[in-house]
């Protein structure tokens, strides 16, 4: 797929702006252009929630050569972003006492499933939430189709899923086997999420879509988020990385995984604002570190929740056959970012994540001049230095390590663990003798063994690779 030749940066439905608004849109413009170039997407949509204000903008065209620019009401498949809706309902059920995190999931299934345990340890509700059920990736079994993917693979998966009934699902469920003790190993499983939908339907006596509408969509005014579109409503096309038009999902199952949900950037921005509500008990429960992890956690079905150079970060990536959605929140900054691109490309989630981080840097460090970043030389030592933002809670940082080419990129090497010098300043002294004069070393800072800090744009010692590591040379 060729990149967009021209970007028309036209602000939609707005005629005048304050300087702050102009700055926000300028940041969106610059990052949208880079995102289109890196991903190869025809269409890029970006929404930002900052200081209680919502900014949205759309770039390019959905179909090459047709000039059909997306807008706030364009329907896209949002795929696994749907899991956050499912997580909200599970959080609500926990707060209402209808389910407990320690409950055996079989308590809420109508048939007997002796196989949903491993050596006597059952799958619990909390395992569903943290992707640690030890269950297979999906039903129907699609593992062989993923062994060697091509631009035909999505069509094969779609056809398999389209013909797969709920009756067959329950039959196959009796034969699945757990591969380890639940709660031990992370393993992304859409099968687990279908079970979550079944549990919610059995607990509340209503289908998943109705529960979404009554408990989330209606209250937030999300009128353009649904399982089935009307006769005059159209779903945006998505493409493979070689430009081939991709199929849309087709599923007869419960929809709690994301295989049925269509939404718009306008609606997702409403949900983004909801996820930043620090006073909403359901929201806060859904983002809770239920695993009591000192590294990263998953809350209620987030892909990841961790501590970064921007404080707490939670994100969800939704990957359809030809569309990718990135939904992320920075609660300590009260900022949310949502992006949609209409291309399925390897590493697309990583590209979206980096774009979100670069947008955050533009907001938080807009005028920093180029300088050597991350270390100084003092006497006979190299002193690595990391400064956490002063308005962030550094108490959430359990460990900061330096990982690089000099220690096999090992973030758990205690010799390279930094020490807290004051409220938000961390240092590590390493003798000069550990480094060879004239040799270039690469490194990064790692927070809580989970987040590799993005090299800031102000760093003059960035290596310019895809990983954009910091460099050290004596």
UniProtKB/TrEMBL annotation:
Stretches assigned to coiled coil: none
CDD domains associated with the record: E_set_AMPKbeta_like_N
Source taxon at top rank: Bacteria
Segments forming domain Beta-lactamase-related: 29-348
Gene3D superfamilies, sorted: DD-peptidase/beta-lactamase superfamily, Immunoglobulins
Protein name, per record: CubicO group peptidase (Beta-lactamase class C family)
Organism expressing this protein natively: Chryseobacterium shigense
């Amino acid at each position: 797929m060729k990149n967009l030749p021209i970007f028309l940066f036209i602000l939609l439905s707005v005629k005048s702006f304050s300087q702050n608004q102009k700055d926000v849109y300028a940041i969106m413009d610059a990052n949208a252009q880079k995102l289109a170039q890196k991903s190869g997407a025809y269409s890029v949509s970006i929404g930002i929630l900052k200081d209680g204000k919502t900014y949205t903008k759309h770039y390019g065209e959905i179909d090459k050569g047709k000039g059909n620019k997306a807008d706030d009401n364009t329907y896209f498949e949002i795929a696994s972003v749907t899991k956050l809706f499912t997580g909200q309902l599970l959080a609500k059920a926990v707060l209402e006492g209808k389910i407990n995190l320690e409950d055996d999931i079989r308590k809420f299934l109508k048939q007997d499933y002796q196989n949903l345990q491993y050596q006597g340890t059952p799958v619990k509700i909390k395992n569903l939430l943290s992707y640690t059920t030890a269950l297979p990736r999906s039903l129907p079994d699609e593992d062989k189709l993923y062994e060697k993917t091509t631009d035909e693979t999505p069509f094969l998966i779609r056809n398999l899923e389209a013909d797969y009934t709920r009756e067959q699902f329950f039959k196959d469920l009796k034969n699945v086997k757990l591969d380890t003790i639940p709660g031990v190993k992370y393993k992304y499983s859409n099968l687990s999420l279908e079970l979550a939908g079944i549990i919610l339907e059995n607990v509340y006596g209503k289908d998943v879509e109705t529960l979404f509408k009554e408990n989330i969509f209606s209250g937030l005014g999300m009128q353009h988020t649904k399982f089935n579109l009307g006769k005059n409503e159209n779903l945006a096309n998505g493409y493979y990385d070689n430009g081939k038009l991709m199929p849309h999902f087709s599923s007869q199952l419960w929809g709690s995984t994301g295989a049925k949900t269509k939404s718009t950037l306008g609606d997702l921005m409403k949900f983004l604002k909801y996820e930043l509500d620090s006073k909403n008990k359901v929201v806060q429960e859904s983002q809770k570190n239920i695993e009591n992890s000192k590294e990263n956690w998953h809350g209620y079905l987030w892909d990841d929740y961790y501590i970064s150079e921007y404080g707490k970060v939670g994100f969800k990536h939704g990957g359809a056959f030809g569309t990718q959605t990135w939904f992320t929140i920075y609660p300590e900054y009260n900022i949310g970012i949502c992006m949609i691109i209409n291309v399925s490309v390897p590493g697309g989630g990583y590209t979206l994540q980096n774009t979100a981080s670069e947008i955050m840097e533009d907001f938080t460090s807009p005028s920093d001049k180029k300088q050597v970043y991350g270390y100084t030389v003092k006497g006979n030592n190299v002193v690595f230095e990391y400064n956490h933002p002063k308005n962030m809670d550094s108490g959430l940082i359990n460990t900061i390590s330096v990982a690089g080419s000099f220690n096999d990129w090992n973030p758990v090497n205690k010799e390279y663990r930094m020490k807290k010098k004051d409220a938000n300043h961390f240092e590590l002294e390493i003798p000069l003798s550990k480094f060879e004069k004239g040799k270039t070393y690469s490194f990064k800072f790692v927070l809580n063994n989970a987040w590799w800090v993005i090299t800031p744009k102000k760093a003059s010692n960035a290596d310019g690779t895809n990983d954009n590591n910091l460099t050290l040379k004596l």
